[in-house]
Amino acid sequence: MKVALEGRVALVTGGAQGIGRAIVDALIDNGAQVAIVDIDTRTGTKTAEEIQQTGGTCLFVEGDVSDAAQMEAVAQQVAAHFGTIQILVNNAGINTRQERVPIHQYALADWHRILATDLTGVFTTSRAVIPHLLPNADGRIVNISSIAGLVPLRLQSAYVAAKAGVANLTRSMALELGPQGILVNAVAPGSTLTRGTEALFYGPDGAYSENAASLISHIPLGRPGTPAEIAAAVLFLVSPDASYVNGTILTVDGGWTAGYTRDW
Known about the structure:
Layout: E1 9-13, H1 18-29, E2 33-38, H2 41-53, E3 58-62, H3 68-82, E4 87-90, H4 108-118, H5 120-133, E5 140-144, H6 157-177, E6 183-189, H7 198-201, H8 210-216, H9 227-238, E7 249-252
Parallel strand pairs: 1-2, 1-4, 2-3, 4-5, 5-6, 6-7
């Protein structure tokens, strides 16, 4: 997909690797200048250097989206460096570190940690960046939700709550900001194959694990998505062609949440 983003400035949280890196690459490949914001300084710096070596314009800024003061400073730094911000992609997110358990066994520390990044992080980053988008009157915000925020999943109470919050926060932002020229949408990925999820999908023999095979049986396309496929959805939503798309949750899940039938 090729879209006209020449001269546009984008800020992508969690852009150092995985889906975030794919989003950054898609934006760069279509002419945007990109600021990567991430807590992983080493990988973020390396990513920005790689992009610069290929002729892209990329800045890395260390920042924790759960820290409102940090994100205010990050937004100021990025706007000062590029002169403006026109695109915000709230991609940074985490999931539980513990074994998946029912809510009455769920660690309170994990609940607070995930909500702080996955939901509050979207709020704090948006609050910091929106004042820089408003003067342009043609801004774009894309929040990364998840199918876990659209359909009930077991044993991930903090993650599903956070991502459901992102979906409705997106709609609320669209209502508030649309009249001011800022379009706000979300992308809800399904199972996506990144380096971080490879171990969840593949066994030692290189074949799908038993759990992955069961999961994939629910997906009409019969496979997980790729980061590039998620990035393509984001690219559309920030493109000029999406000028009448506002407040939508674009699901990219191979048909999983469309419903499925099984032989029993």
